């Protein structure tokens, strides 16, 4: 009985949650705000974040391994 109630609640809540989400950013539009650089597009930030993540991945993995080793 409880599972049926939970499932019914989730099914009713999903469309309401989906309606509240904002549309995706238009990547080729200029950025708004004071933090932007001249000529910067919205997609540039995402590209820079992905590049930084790739560069830092080995360091992060090394640090995680060291933390796990210290726990043991």
SSE inventory with pairings:
Blueprint lengths: L1 H19 L21 H30 L1
What does this structure look like?
The protein is an all-alpha fold and 72 residues long. The protein has a domain at 28-72. Helix content is 68%, strand content 0%. It has helices at 2-20, 42-71.
Properties at a glance:
72 residues, mainly alpha
Question: Would you tell me the overall average pLDDT?
Answer: 77
Q: From N to C, what is the helix and strand string?
A: HH
**Main β sheet profile:** none
Structural class: mainly alpha
Helical content band: 55-70%
Question: Uncertain spans, ≥5 residues at pLDDT below 50?
Answer: none
**Outline type:** flat
State Rg: 21 Å
Q: Care to count the β-strands?
A: 0
Distance from first to last alpha carbon: 44 Å
Beta percentage is under 5%
**What's the assembly state of these chains?**
single chain
What's the tally of helices? 2
């Amino acid at each position: 009985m409880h599972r049926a109630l939970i499932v019914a609640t989730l099914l009713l809540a999903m469309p309401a949650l989906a309606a509240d989400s904002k549309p995706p950013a238009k990547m080729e539009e200029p950025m708004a705000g004071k933090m932007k650089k001249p000529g910067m597009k919205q997609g540039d930030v995402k590209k820079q974040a992905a590049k930084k993540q790739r560069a830092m991945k080995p360091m992060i993995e090394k640090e995680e391994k060291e933390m796990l080793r210290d726990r043991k």
